[in-house]
Write a structure and sequence with these properties.
- The longest helix is centred in the C-terminal third of the chain and has 25 residues, at 224-248.
- This protein has helices at residues 52-60, 63-66, 83-95, 113-118, 132-139, 147-155, 174-184, 204-210, 224-248; strands at residues 3-13, 21-26, 48-51, 71-75, 99-104, 122-126, 159-166, 191-198.
- With 249 residues, it is an alpha/beta fold.
- 37% of the residues lie in helices and 21% in strands.
- It has a single domain (3-248), classed as Alpha-Beta Barrel (TIM Barrel), CATH 3.20.20.70.
- The relative contact order is 0.13.
- It has an eight-stranded mixed sheet.
- The radius of gyration is 18 Å and the shape is globular.
- The N and C termini lie far apart (49 Å).
Length: 249
């Protein structure tokens, strides 16, 4: 029987998808983002094991809170690295009429991409960067591993949220926002939200505890108001494009 390895669970999550959600943070991630605030979720060792039935039973306890728009989110670590488990769990949750969100950076077990997305209501795609060099600098892996997931995003039938962590000195300027927009604009019809998350240092202590060097030691936190202004800029671009497309029909 397939078992999932779960780093942690948030039972009243308000951040990773709409409404009130149970968020399962899966253990293990192939990336090493310089700003990752959960470096302890990167290892493929450890985590608490759950069967699909145990996970569904856990999620159902909170069903009264989900109401019209809440539900369950799979995040990480990287949920796509436990493809079979996440697929089976998503399918079982949908059978219970529970809304599902997948929060992913788009690198994992390719065989399960399509299967998982069939049972995903909202896909949150974390865009680390839009060019190869900066992508590798930030994540430590090649951007080429993303391409098969991006192909699946194009045929995905649900809603898409785009997320990007804004780090001072890397993408905190209008040009970068325009490039980011171009990178995702093929999917503009299904994008519901673009979120610019300001880089923060809340996870730094974990690096010291794990004795891992922290690459952004000398980088300031991102100003929240500035990040919000960039987000508003992108959302108004998106709305304009969506309206133009509607008018053109
Ligand atoms: S993808 Fe997420 S969990 Fe993985 S290293 Fe990056 S920030 Fe951390």
């Amino acid at each position: 029987m397939i078992k999932g390895h779960i780093h942690s669970i948030e039972t009243m999550g308000l951040f990773d998808g709409p409404g009130i959600r149970t968020v399962f943070f899966m253990q293990g991630c192939p990336l090493k983002c310089s700003y990752c605030h959960n470096p302890d979720s990167q290892s493929f060792e450890g985590g608490t094991t759950y069967t699909v039935d145990e996970l569904v039973r856990f999620a159902k306890r909170y069903k009264p809170y989900y109401k019209d728009n809440g539900g369950v989110t799979f995040s990480g670590g990287e949920a796509l690295m436990q493809g079979e488990f996440v697929y089976e769990a998503m399918k079982a949750l949908k059978a219970e009429d529970i809304h599902t969100v997948l929060d992913t950076s788009g690198i994992g077990q390719t065989f399960y991409y399509k299967k998982i997305l069939e049972y995903t209501d909202i896909l949150i795609l974390d865009v680390k960067h839009f060019n190869k060099t900066d992508y590798r600098d930030i994540t430590g892996v090649s951007m080429k591993w993303l391409s098969s997931f991006l192909d699946e995003v194009s045929s995905f039938q649900g809603k898409l949220w785009i997320r990007h962590v804004m780090v001072p000195g890397i993408t905190d300027d209008k040009n970068s926002m325009d490039y980011l927009y171009d990178y995702v604009s093929n999917w503009s019809e299904k994008i519901e939200k673009i979120e610019i998350l300001p880089y923060h240092k809340l996870g730094v202590d974990k690096y010291y505890q794990l004795e891992i060097p922290y690459q952004l030691e000398n980088t300031d936190e991102m100003n929240k108001e500035d990040a919000l202004a960039h987000q508003n800029y992108l959302m108004s671009k998106l709305e304009k494009e969506q309206i133009d497309k509607l008018i053109a029909v």
